[in-house]
Amino acid sequence: MILKPAKIHLLDPGPLDPASNMALDEVLLESEGWWLRLTRWDRPCVTLGRFQSWPQNSSDESFPQIHPFSSQSLSGTQPSPTSSPGDKADSLPAVRRVTGGGSILHGEDLTIAIAGPCPSPHFPDRSPGKVATQISKVLGSLLSPGIHTRGGEDREKEMVDVVDCFQRRSPSDLVLEVDGETVKAGGLALAFRPGRVLIEGSLHRGPASRPVEEDQSWMELLMQKWLGIEGETAEKWQTDLTEEQAERVSEAVENRFGTVEWNRR
Amino acid sequence: MSEVPADRFYLSSHEWAQEGDDGVVTIGITEFAASELGELVYIELPGEGEDVHFEQQFGEIESVKAVSALNSPISGQVIESNASLLDSQEPITDSPFEEGWMLKIKPADDSWKDQLMNPADYESQLNNS
Fold first, then answer.
1. Highest mean pLDDT among A11-20, A39-48, A133-142, B82-91
2. Structural class in CATH, domain B9-109
């Protein structure tokens, strides 16, 4: 059976500040139809899981070290509206996601978001674990050879106090073997609202090397392989949001994603 | 097959509501929902005195890196929140219809049952899903 939604929005709005990026993902979660989004960052930053405690040491150099493949210099990063006034000037901006899971350092990862109806023909089961594993298998098949889904038992409870998403273990993780060790190469976080799901994914550019300039073509490949649609049935790279969506992003930044109350808890 | 107690009413998004002798309505999520969510790690519930609205989000629950909205099967005012769930969510999984209750609500009106599914209809929904 070939599943072909009438339309999918492929969105690449370009580099945005952390709060706007997370606000936009929530707007897509609450929009109608399918959205496949390339998330670009205008500065290195950290995103926190919806219920994570604010890390005690977020303003020192710990975050640049939590990403196993990160090599990007973070010096000179400017504080953002999402940082508290008490943060050091060289701290990374941090913003809270609407999805669960742990902290992720962004800047040189490949970040994507998928939003769509759930349950639906593409996600017939609303179970978070099954949805995550389903999309993880698709992503793994499109990345470098050797990357696969971790599988195994859910151990989420054991991972609650592990700050870094890439140090956590979940069945839906994308992993590969490096020198005999299993290394996490990608992770997913999800949010469900009535009839909708948002999946945010962060994929390493390290062992699963994929140049930035290939991101758009990779997204089109994802659309083709996963959704089985291409060309005429796709609304290609709709780079502009509707006016109403853009307004909702601005409101969400002002009222939540750009506020200390939302980001520090 | 998930249990569907006959002494309460249901929302299609898998929340239940049960009326007590004093007219206070207790709400929670069903056994089916709890089993689908998997291992739970966080929950956020409204406090006493807050208003909840029919089919509107009243809280959130996290499991398996996924945050899910909790929708209220009834409109009214929260008179008690199950604070013990903030420390341990296991009762939601182990006893979703008893120890895993989430809120006790004073209904905004007496017609709240009219908007919900009876046990037979909810069971039918589960069988068809």
1. B82-91
2. mainly beta
Residue range(s) defining the domain that contains residue A58? 8-264
CATH number at residue A225: 3.30.930.10
pTM: 0.86
Work out the burial of residue A49: count CB atoms within 10 Å of its CB; fewer than 13 is exposed, 13-18 middle, 19 or more buried.
buried
In angstroms, the separation between the Cα of residue A5 and the nearest Cα of chain B is: 21
In a domain, A1, yes or no: no
- Under an 8 A CB cutoff, do A192 and B67 touch? yes
| Average pLDDT of adjacent 10-residue blocks, chain B of 129 residues | 92 95 96 92 96 96 93 97 96 97 96 95 90
Residues above pLDDT 70, as percent of chain A: 77
Interchain contact A129–B (C-beta under 8 A): yes
- For residues A168 and A158, the answer to whether their CB atoms sit within 8 Å is no
Cis peptide leading into B107, omega within 30 of 0? no
A 205-264 → B contacts, CB under 8 A = none
User: B66, A189: Cβ pair inside 8 Å?
Assistant: yes
Distance CA A228, CA A6 (A): 11
b/e for A149-180, b at 16 or more Cβ within 10 A? bbeeebebeebbeebbbbebbbbbbbbbeeee
pLDDT of residue A229: 63
Cα Rg of chain A, angstroms:
18
